[in-house]
Write a structure and sequence with these properties.
This protein is an alpha/beta fold. The chain has 16 helices and 29 strands.
């Protein structure tokens, strides 16, 4: 059986249908200058990319890694690779040497595409990359040697047209996406061209974006959210979208939302928490009247953020849940549905989610267990690249084990507890970090929080709270007592942290997930390992 090549469905088909000149992406630079790009631009540039890659010998099913900062180049190379029926792998431009080495060896890249300012990193490890044949550098004029090549020099003889199969096998790999590494070494999840319809269905069902809307997904394309909801789905749905090259800045983000009349905004709780520190009067004054919906992704949405958003924006913030492996949103709060603050929401139509014990027996409502998804949804990852044993371990009794702990209430809403390997077993009681963090975030003096469990000879694990204080606030015995009493009142006496550590920033990866293993290592005085995906 065959399915559409993602590059054909997102670009070529649109040009064939007469939409080539349609303005598609407004690209905004850190200084807020803007450029607007059409289907024809991406079609032509991705054709050139495909021709260059073919010229240097890239074949179907070869892996090509993209190691670039956010730019139109990422989009062009992503689609160009898919036109060749090769496999794309987007990597964070902020990866350190160790993280880059791990990923390039794990995905067996034949080619990596980068810029001059990242070349030293690659050169320092190139002798350890046995599969790597070429480094394409997009901003040098001449080849460095037979392995490090100038992309502009190669494009000088390339045609802006490229013929490729519009239909591919149903099991044809399209791209690899590395897991977050929040609790261990990242694995490369394989996603197929046939995932496209499920991605699009989730877009319409949950985010409810129309062709008249302006959409802004703030996620980096090296995360599953960024590649699916920042590249693939807006292109195939002909949605006008915003892309921003800069880092988070509240004034700039509010200006972008207002000046570009954004209607649907998909962002992370981390960004919303940072906005919470701004003056509410300023936010209201600069907030766009065009904005209809706000969605969050990447980490659980604390009730405190939900209530703040409703007060300041007069809008409900809709939390969504999915993973690198699921390929599309699985569980969500969506417009028109009653929201229970703190809940993940309900599964999408035709997505069957259940709570199971360790024997994979389905548990009754309000009983905590393993969050599982019935196998077979269309955007489900096909494998872990060259790690099939780990892939098989994720499935049992026809269910995908997400690695998250949650419970389902009597109304069918799902409630996140924690990652299964983040759960704290203290004195024989299981405590989820999220509920403790949510309680502590309700204290005005605390602006960010992360809770971890560390080994203890008496309790098995003790609870440690890493706290970021608001400006001008000093930690004191009185504030600690206030925090302990609040956790006792809101969660339980068992959940009271044994210790509070004051730090300047909570280490998180670039999708906003807390890197608890880094905090545990910090507490225990150990090496935290790869921190190249840490948010900066």
């Amino acid at each position: 059986m065959l399915t559409k090549n993602i590059a054909y469905a997102c670009l070529t088909e649109k040009c064939i249908q007469g939409s080539g000149s349609e303005n598609l992406v407004t690209w905004i630079n850190p200084d807020l200058s803007e450029s607007v790009y059409s289907y024809e631009f991406f079609e032509s540039e991705s054709n050139i990319a495909a021709n260059v890659l073919k010229k240097i010998g890239v074949q179907p099913d070869d892996v090509v890694s993209i190691f670039l900062p956010r730019s139109t180049d990422i989009v062009n190379f992503f689609f160009g690779i898919l036109k060749l029926e090769a496999i794309s792998c987007l990597l964070f431009s902020t990866l350190g040497i160790e993280g880059l080495l791990d990923r390039l060896n794990a995905n067996r890249s034949r080619v990596i595409i980068t810029k001059k300012n990242s070349l030293k990193k690659i050169q320092s490890i190139i002798s350890q990359l046995e599969m790597l044949e070429f480094v394409l550098v997009i901003d040098i004029e001449d080849h460095v040697d037979e392995k490090i090549l100038s992309y502009p020099l190669l494009t000088s003889t390339c045609d802006p047209d490229f013929l490729f199969p519009y239909w591919v096998d149903l099991k044809k790999p399209a791209f690899l996406q590395f897991t977050s590494g929040s609790t261990g070494k990242p694995k490369a999840a394989v996603h197929l061209h046939s995932s496209l319809n499920e991605m699009l269905t989730s877009y319409y069902e949950v985010l409810q974006v129309t062709k008249k809307d302006v959409f802004w997904c703030t996620a980096d394309p090296a995360w599953i959210t960024g590649v699916v909801y920042g590249i693939i789905v807006p292109f195939i749905s002909q949605t006008r979208q915003i892309q921003f090259n800069g880092v988070f800045n509240p004034d700039k983000w509010l200006t972008i939302l207002q000046n570009n009349k954004v209607n649907v905004w998909f962002t992370a709780p981390t960004a919303l928490r940072m906005l919470m520190q701004e003056d509410e009067v300023k936010i209201r004054k600069n907030f766009p009247t065009t904005l209809r919906s706000i969605f969050s992704v990447g980490e659980p949405l604390n009730p405190e953020i939900f209530f703040w958003g409703k007060r300041v924006f007069s809008l409900e913030i809709h939390d969504t849940w999915f993973q690198t492996e699921t390929g599309a949103i699985m569980i969500a709060n969506r417009p028109g549905m009653k929201i229970l603050p703190g809940s993940m929401g309900k599964p999408r139509e035709n997505i069957e989610a259940v709570i199971c014990n360790d024997q994979m027996e389905i548990l009754p409502p309000n009983v905590q267990g393993n969050l599982c998804i019935k196998k077979g949804w269309k955007s489900m990852f096909f494998d872990y690249f060259y790690n099939h044993i780990a892939y098989k371990e994720k499935f049992k009794s026809g269910l995908y084990k997400t690695g998250d702990l949650a419970y389902k209430d009597t109304e069918g809403y799902f409630w996140f507890v924690s990652r299964s390997d983040d759960v704290i077993n203290t004195s024989g009681h299981l405590v989820g970090p999220f509920e403790v963090e949510s309680a502590l975030l309700e204290i005005d003096e605390i602006i960010d929080i992360a809770v971890v469990g560390v080994p203890d000879s008496l309790l098995y694990q003790k609870i440690i709270a890493f706290v970021v204080l608001a400006d001008g606030v000093a930690w004191s015995n009185q504030l600690e007592l206030k925090a302990r009493i609040h956790v006792s009142n809101r969660v339980s006496t068992i959940a009271i942290p044994s210790e509070f550590r004051i730090i300047e920033n909570i280490p998180k990866n670039q999708s906003g997930k807390i890197l608890r293993r880094v905090l545990k290592a910090l507490y225990e005085g150990k090496n935290p390992g790869d921190i190249s995906t840490m948010e900066v």
